[in-house]
Amino acid sequence: MKNGKIRTRTYILISLMLLLPLLAALYSPFLMVEGVKSGIITLSFLVFAVWLILSLFMGRSVSCGYTCPYGALQEILGGYTNKKPRSQRANKIRYPFAVLFIIIVSYSILKIGGLKGFDLLAPNGNPKLVILIPLFILTTGILSIIFGSRAFCKYICPQGVFLTIGTELGRKIKIPSLLLETNHNCSNCELCNKSCPMGLDVNYMVKNDTMDDLNCILCGECIKNCPKNVINYSFNIKD
């Protein structure tokens, strides 16, 4: 699985960004939370559930790497900002947001006595959502322009935390899953670092043979940009 297939990701990201006004409700965390608060399961809830299950086998590639329009927006707008690898300790900021997300959802379900059914697009059209969803799109875009590619994903996104947990769970229970593998032909050009949308120090990962960083979204940009074919995909059980 090399350059030809991975290059299609560029076109996928552009398409997702252009279609974001139409896809916003489908992927909206606000719609999911508002649905739960109303006692209903929305389409965004189901999309996230599918992502969570697939993270056991595919990590964050299916969701964050290839199909999230909000991630696509951030990556395109912030793709030329702050390209140097960042300290990954800052990524821990998103965990309190995940805890807050769980508290809100759990309290809402308990308050109304449990989920009562399906209404895939409800409460779409809610005046609050008409304001919140465009504001969320604008905020994620601005954050990436200021702080670099996928700033919201790195520092805030609670859904990313659950997908990271799903990825780690799949590895712990020894399910065959999508991984990155490397050989020892690295020339230290650091093009992998410059291409990583999550700001990981991929060059360090390659030299230390530690290609399983949980913040990796398995997008394949490091594979595409490596001139020595040092990095590639594999589908195995993590040792």
From TrEMBL:
SUPFAM superfamilies listed in its UniProt record: 4Fe-4S ferredoxins
This protein's GO CC annotations: plasma membrane
Occurrences of domain 4Fe-4S ferredoxin-type (ranges): 207-236
Recorded GO MF terms: 4 iron, 4 sulfur cluster binding; metal ion binding; oxidoreductase activity
One Pfam entry name: Fer4_5
Keywords noted in UniProt: 4Fe-4S, Electron transport, Iron, Iron-sulfur, Membrane, Metal-binding, Transmembrane, Transmembrane helix, Transport
InterPro entries recorded: 4Fe4S_Fe-S-bd, 4Fe4S_Fe_S_CS, Electron_Trans/Redox
Source species, domain of life: Archaea
Membrane-spanning ranges: 12-32, 38-57, 93-110, 130-148
Database matches in PANTHER family: FERREDOXIN-TYPE PROTEIN NAPH
Name of the protein this chain belongs to: 4Fe-4S ferredoxin iron-sulfur binding domain-containing protein
Organism: Methanobacterium congolense
Lineage: Archaea, Methanobacteriati, Methanobacteriota, Methanomada group, Methanobacteria
